[in-house]
Write a structure and sequence with these properties.
TIM Barrel; 9-stranded parallel sheet; globular
Length: 263
């Protein structure tokens, strides 16, 4: 059983919801990323989503776009992201790591080469925002044991959910609003209606993200989702926190979300 599957199995047995924080690799600096990853786990993260910086992150709002720019300015690349994952794995062999990014840097490296290098570094899953199921590289990833994670949107039809279900593994990620990361137009009632539709077409765990900015909203989504994904709010904390308070601020905020989910 792979790490992502093991994690959801364990949480399901304990009737708990997975907490999946997102941060951009290399922000605020490559030297701090691994410490941030460990701090998030200590604060209650079950799976880590690590962003691969890209110059045109079309699904991301201003906060994550700025984070990508800061990381790229410091020389971050796919290779350096994988080096950071390998460093994290020296002290944590259990927490799943999902890379979230865009096709261009991976295509430039080559999917097969990327998949092999990702597994060697300790990556568990890959979410490529702009690679649809019609162009899925599922087999290339599966041959290396990587989970292939897809986004579903409020506009996704049930037929397309079924198509994604045939390609996805690990979990599926429901984008809770029409817009980019960090938007504030989250409609909890609509999300609650959509998740059961996804479950009818897909037997994988369902994670919900985009627009979750506080513990109360996370807890509300945790009532009907298998996982809560939080990104922009954490990235803003990284951007705004003084260096000497960064880890404390991140862990304190994420721990409050963990407590709300568990309650």
């Amino acid at each position: 059983m792979k790490r992502i599957e093991q994690t959801f199995s364990r949480l399901r047995a304990g009737k708990r919801v997975a907490l999946i924080p997102y941060v951009t690799a290399g922000d605020p600096s490559p030297q701090v990323t691994v410490a941030i990853m460990h701090a998030l786990v200590a604060a209650g993260a079950d799976i880590l989503e690590l962003g691969v910086p890209f110059s045109d992150p079309m699904a991301d709002g201003p906060a994550i776009q700025r984070a990508s720019e800061r990381a790229l300015a410091q020389g971050m690349s796919v290779h350096r992201v994988l080096e950071l994952v390998a460093q994290f794995r020296r002290d944590d062999a259990q927490t799943p790591v999902v890379l979230m990014g865009y096709a261009n840097p991976v295509e430039r490296m080559g999917y097969a080469r990327f998949a092999a290098a990702a597994v060697a570094a300790g990556v568990d899953g890959v979410l490529l925002v702009d690679v649809p199921p019609e162009e899925s590289v599922r087999q290339v990833l599966a041959d290396q044991g990587l989970d292939n994670i897809f986004l579903l949107a409020p506009t996704t039809t049930e037929a397309r959910m079924a198509l994604v279900a045939g390609q996805a593994s690990g979990f599926v990620y429901y984008v809770s609003l029409k817009g980019v990361t960090g938007s504030n137009a989250l409609d909890l009632d609509e999300v609650a209606r959509r998740v059961p539709l996804i479950r009818r077409q897909c037997d994988l765990p369902v994670g919900v993200g985009f627009g979750i900015r506080d513990a109360q909203t996370a807890a509300a989504i945790g009532k009907f989702a298998d996982a809560v994904v939080i990104g922009s709010r954490l990235v803003e904390e990284i951007e705004q926190s003084p260096p000497d308070r960064l880890l404390h601020n991140l862990t304190a905020w994420l721990a409050s979300v963990r407590a709300a989910l568990d309650a």
